[in-house]
Amino acid sequence: MTVVLCLDLGTTTGWAIHSKQGVITSGTISFKNDRWQGGGMRFLKFNRFLNELNENAGPISMVFFEEVRRHMGVDAAHAYGGFMAHLTAWCEQQNIAYEGVPVGTIKRHATGKGNANKTMMIESAKARGHLPADDNEADALALVYWAIDQRIGEQL
């Protein structure tokens, strides 16, 4: 069985893992810096988070992340780019396959609508038996189901 990690990257990152046993776990984690931390601390925390997931739930075989092409602002775009750079470098170091999946593809798979709103994504996760804390976790859950159906179903 394959261990798959799915991420909705951002200052508040949603994550979902499909374990070797076929169990899906998920959550959110905040990488917001406090006023005493430098800008790079969020990425060091992110790398530590990835290492802990790999150690506790892994070894991770595949990583999928939500590929965002439009951002609400410059700060969000910079943060996303930083998380994506650290994620892809970490995957390369660990020899883990990774793939970005367009937002519309994930939303369409989860709800039937490529422009589904946050509430629709949360409702989709609830319909699958999950209780996401927010839309970030719901997006990561939607992505893990997309990955199962589109990329790893035959390996299960």
Q: Indicate the percent of residues in helices.
A: 40-55%
Order of secondary-structure elements = EEEHEHEHHH
Global structural class: alpha/beta
CATH fold-level topology: Nucleotidyltransferase, domain 5
DSSP helical segment count: 5
Poorly predicted residue ranges: none
Shape: globular
| Total separate domains | 1
The CATH architecture is 2-Layer Sandwich
Give the N-to-C terminal Cα separation.
Answer: 6 Å
Q: Note the beta-strand portion.
A: 15-25%
Rounded to the nearest angstrom, the radius of gyration is 15 Å
Strand sequence of the main sheet, in spatial order? Answer: 3-2-1-4-5
Question: What composes the largest sheet?
Answer: 5 strands, mixed
CATH superfamily: Ribonuclease H-like superfamily/Ribonuclease H
GO molecular function: nucleic acid binding
InterPro entries: RNaseH-like_sf (IPR012337), RNaseH_sf (IPR036397)
Protein name: Crossover junction endodeoxyribonuclease RuvC
What's a quick, concise take on this entry?
This protein has 156 residues and is of the alpha/beta class. Helix content is 48%, strand content 20%.
Written overview of the protein:
This protein is an alpha/beta fold and 156 residues long. The protein has a single domain, classed as Ribonuclease H-like superfamily/Ribonuclease H (Nucleotidyltransferase, domain 5, 2-Layer Sandwich), CATH 3.30.420.10. The chain is built from five helices and five strands, in the order E-E-E-H-E-H-E-H-H-H. It has helices at residues 41-57, 74-94, 103-111, 118-127, 135-152, and strands at residues 4-8, 12-18, 24-30, 62-67, 97-102. It has a five-stranded mixed beta sheet, with helices on both faces. The radius of gyration is 15 Å and the shape is globular. GO terms for molecular function: nucleic acid binding.
